[in-house]
């Protein structure tokens, strides 16, 4: 394995890690909540679309600023847009990490299919593990949770196996 020294950005990675860690810590200290994206999203959806058997069915409708989960997800979704806009204003657009193959006209469709399939499997895995990489990896490991150590081990093993199959066996990446 080689390091892509041209696109290696340790300072940005350090700043991003500090922002993620401090925001997860603040959410835990201030709200007593774990910053797990799958849990935040599912609990928000339970409030917006209550299930018949759910105890949340009698709650008032969710307003934009009364629910921290909406603001959290809006911040999460807007961050890449703000990042891209910042680089455009500075005159140096960020590089794309998506692989390209100009010889094939169908590569965009292939990548979309891979993205859609990977998204489905990620959601399924997050549901199966009762949490996602942000909840287990950032918050669970920091709390020394045994369950999170097992979950992160499964996540990392699956990622390594997926990369190996996609890169070395199927030559997709």
TrEMBL record:
Q: Which residues cross the membrane?
A: 6-30, 70-89, 109-129, 149-170
Q: Kindly give the InterPro entries that the UniProt entry links to this protein.
A: Sulf_transp_TsuA/YedE (IPR007272)
Instruction: From the Swiss-Prot or TrEMBL record, state where the protein is found.
Output: Cell inner membrane
Which Pfam families does the record cross-reference, listed alphabetically? Sulf_transp
Q: How does it sit in the membrane?
A: Multi-pass membrane protein
Q: Which UniProt keywords apply?
A: Cell inner membrane, Cell membrane, Membrane, Transmembrane, Transmembrane helix, Transport
Membership in a protein family:
Belongs to the TsuA/YedE (TC 9.B.102) family.
Protein's name in the database: YeeE/YedE thiosulfate transporter family protein
What organism does this protein naturally occur in?
Answer: Neptunomonas phycophila
């Amino acid at each position: 394995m080689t390091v892509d020294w041209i696109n290696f950005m340790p300072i940005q990675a350090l700043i991003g890690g500090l922002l993620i860690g401090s925001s997860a810590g603040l959410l835990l200290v201030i709200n007593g909540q774990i910053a797990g994206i799958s849990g935040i999203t599912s609990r928000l959806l339970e409030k917006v679309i209550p299930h018949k058997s759910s105890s949340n069915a009698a709650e008032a409708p969710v307003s934009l600023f009364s629910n921290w989960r909406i603001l959290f997800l809006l911040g999460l979704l807007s961050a890449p847009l703000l990042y891209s806009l910042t680089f455009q204003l500075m005159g140096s657009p960020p590089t794309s990490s998506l692989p390209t193959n100009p010889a094939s006209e169908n590569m965009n469709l292939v990548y979309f299919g891979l993205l859609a399939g990977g998204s489905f499997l990620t959601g399924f895995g997050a549901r199966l593990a009762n949490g996602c990489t942000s909840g287990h990896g950032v918050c669970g490991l920091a709390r020394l949770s045994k369950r999170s150590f097992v979950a992160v081990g499964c996540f990392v093993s699956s990622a390594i196996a997926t990369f190996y199959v996609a890169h070395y066996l199927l030559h997709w990446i």
